[in-house]
Specification:
Strand 4, helix 3 and strand 5 form a beta-alpha-beta unit. The protein has one domain: Alpha/beta knot. The strands form three sheets. A six-stranded parallel beta sheet has the order 3-2-1-5-4-6. Strands 7-10-11 form a three-stranded antiparallel beta sheet, with helices on one face. The protein is an alpha/beta fold. Helix content is 27%, strand content 23%. The model has no long low-confidence stretch (mean pLDDT 95). The protein contains six helices and eleven strands. The termini are far apart. Helix 1 packs parallel to helix 5. The structure holds S-adenosylmethionine. S-adenosylmethionine (SAM) binds next to strand 5 and helix 5. S-adenosylmethionine binds next to strand 5 and helix 5.
Length: 181
C-alpha cells in the first residue's frame, strides 16, 4: 500500500514540509510518494516524482475526497494499492481544491466524513481505517482551542484525531500555528 501526496500548493511552504515530515513518520518513508513535486528537501520524507499523479495512471487507486459519496472502510485495504491525497493546506471555509484533482482522476473516491482535516490528519485517519478501525470507532476533536500565550488561545477550524482527550497535532507545527493565527 502506498500513500500518494499530490503537491498542489504554489510553493513548498514550511507548513507543507512539516506536514510531509509527519506523514512520513506516520506511514513510513518507503510507503510515501510525493507527486507534482521537484523539491529535493522532500526526498527525506519519501519518493519524489515531478509528474502529476494524473499522468501516472496508477492501477487500483483511490482518491481521498471529502465530497465522495462513499466513506473509507477497512475492506478498502484489500481493494486499493494507492491512496491519493491533495497536498493542500487547510483553509476555512474549505476552498475545494481537492475537486480539481478529483476531476483529473478517474479512480474511485472515498471520504473520511464531511469535516475538513489537514493532509497529515487525513493520512493518519486513513491508516487507522486501513488497519481495521471503522470511521465511527475513531474519536475526533473538532475545532480545538489551543493555548497560544498566557491569556490567548486560537481555534483551529479543522477535525483532528483525539488521543487521550487531546488533538493529535505534530509538535513541529505548534510554533507555526502560534505565529500564523
Ligand atoms: C486540507 S485538505 C484540503 C481541503 C481543502 N481546503 C480543499 O481545497 O479541498 C487536504 C487533503 O486531505 C484529504 N482530506 C481532508 N479532509 C478529508 C475528508 N474529510 N475526507 C477525505 N479526504 C480528506 C484530501 O485528500 C484533501 O485534498
Amino acid at each position: 500500500m502506498k500513500i500518494v501526496i499530490e503537491h498542489m500548493e504554489p510553493k513548498l511552504w514550511e507548513w507543507c514540509l512539516i506536514e510531509y515530515e509527519h506523514i512520513s513518520k506516520i506511514i513510513g518513508k518507503n510507503n510515501v510518494w510525493f507527486t507534482n513535486c521537484s523539491n529535493k528537501e522532500v526526498l527525506k520524507f519519501g519518493l519524489v516524482k515531478k509528474e502529476s499523479v494524473a499522468k501516472l495512471n496508477l492501477p487500483k487507486s483511490c482518491l481521498l475526497d471529502p465530497k465522495a459519496e462513499k466513506e473509507l472502510s477497512p475492506e478498502d485495504a484489500e481493494k486499493f494499492d494507492y491512496f491519493i491525497f491533495g497536498g493542500i493546506l487547510g483553509n476555512a471555509p474549505a476552498e475545494g481544491r481537492t475537486q480539481i484533482l478529483s476531476k483529473e482522476l478517474s479512480c474511485e473516491k472515498r471520504s473520511l466524513g464531511s469535516k475538513q482535516m489537514s493532509t497529515d490528519t487525513a493520512v493518519l485517519v486513513t491508516k487507522l481505517v486501513l488497519d481495521g478501525k471503522k470511521l465511527e470507532e475513531i474519536s475526533f476533536i473538532d475545532s480545538p482551542e489551543l493555548k497560544s500565550g498566557k491569556n490567548e488561545s486560537i481555534i483551529m477550524p479543522y477535525r483532528y484525531v483525539s488521543e487521550k482527550g487531546k488533538p493529535v497535532i505534530y509538535k513541529k507545527l505548534m510554533p507555526l500555528i502560534k505565529e500564523e493565527f
